[in-house]
């Protein structure tokens, strides 16, 4: 049976984080609050767990899963190189609502779906998520909804959609408006905004000091 922990209660928060960390290390799924929407996550390096995550959402590997990290420095170990534009965006918007796509380090033994050798990374601005990430390391995380349904901004909405597929639900309260992160692709010769979300395109342009392309 799934466990739900109210992270507004200090004792439950501590117990919930411990239970979530144990679940992640055991290859199970957890739901966590973030600064955008609630996410369903697992160990980023456990391929079977990522398969279970995709199955819980009702989607296949053609829609790969992004990775959440708990610190800036984690970025260096996950990607082939960190270009200056990536560091600029990290310094401007992390932790926060910006996801960055980069070529992942070829030595990493993970399978996040059909990524084409890239990984989408973000450091969320939420204390519960950050504490868990700093304990267990990078997590594969997607919005905590069934494919085709709205992404939930609270734990109850996530549980209603995902049910017993998830071992631990960390209830961090409502996230506010369920606005997804903005996604910037830095794998090519110029930055490309693949999705405009919580961070406006003009803010990206301002930070980089250069025009960006919008759309694939």
Automatic annotation (TrEMBL):
- EC numbers listed for it are 2.7.7.87
Q: What class of enzyme is it?
A: transferase
SUPFAM superfamilies, alphabetized: YrdC/RibB
Q: What is its main location?
A: cytoplasm
Source domain of life: Bacteria
Record keyword Transmembrane helix present: no
Q: Provide this UniProt record's keywords sorted from A to Z.
A: ATP-binding, Cytoplasm, Nucleotide-binding, Nucleotidyltransferase, Transferase, tRNA processing
Membership in a protein family: Belongs to the SUA5 family.
What is the recorded name of this protein? L-threonylcarbamoyladenylate synthase
């Amino acid at each position: 049976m799934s466990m739900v922990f109210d992270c507004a209660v200090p004792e439950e928060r501590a117990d919930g984080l411990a239970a979530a960390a144990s679940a992640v290390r055991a290859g199970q799924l957890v739901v966590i609050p973030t600064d955008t929407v609630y996410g369903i996550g697992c160990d980023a390096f456990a391929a079977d767990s990522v398969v279970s995550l995709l199955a819980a959402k009702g989607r296949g590997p053609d829609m790969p899963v992004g990775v959440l990290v708990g610190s800036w420095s984690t970025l260096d170990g996950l990607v082939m190189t960190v270009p200056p534009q990536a560091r600029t965006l990290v310094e401007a918007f992390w932790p926060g609502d910006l996801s960055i796509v980069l070529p992942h380090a070829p030595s990493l033994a993970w399978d996040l779906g059909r990524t084409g050798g890239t990984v989408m990374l973000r450091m969320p601005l939420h204390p519960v998520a950050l504490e868990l990430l700093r304990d267990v390391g990078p997590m594969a995380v997607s919005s905590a909804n069934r494919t085709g349904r709205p992404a939930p901004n609270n734990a109850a909405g996530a549980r209603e959609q995902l049910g017993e597929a998830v071992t631990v639900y960390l209830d961090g309260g409502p996230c506010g408006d369920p606005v997804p992160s903005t996604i910037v692709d830095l794998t090519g010769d110029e930055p490309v905004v693949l999705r405009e979300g919580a961070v406006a395109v003009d803010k990206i342009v301002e930070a980089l000091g250069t025009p960006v392309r919008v759309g694939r």
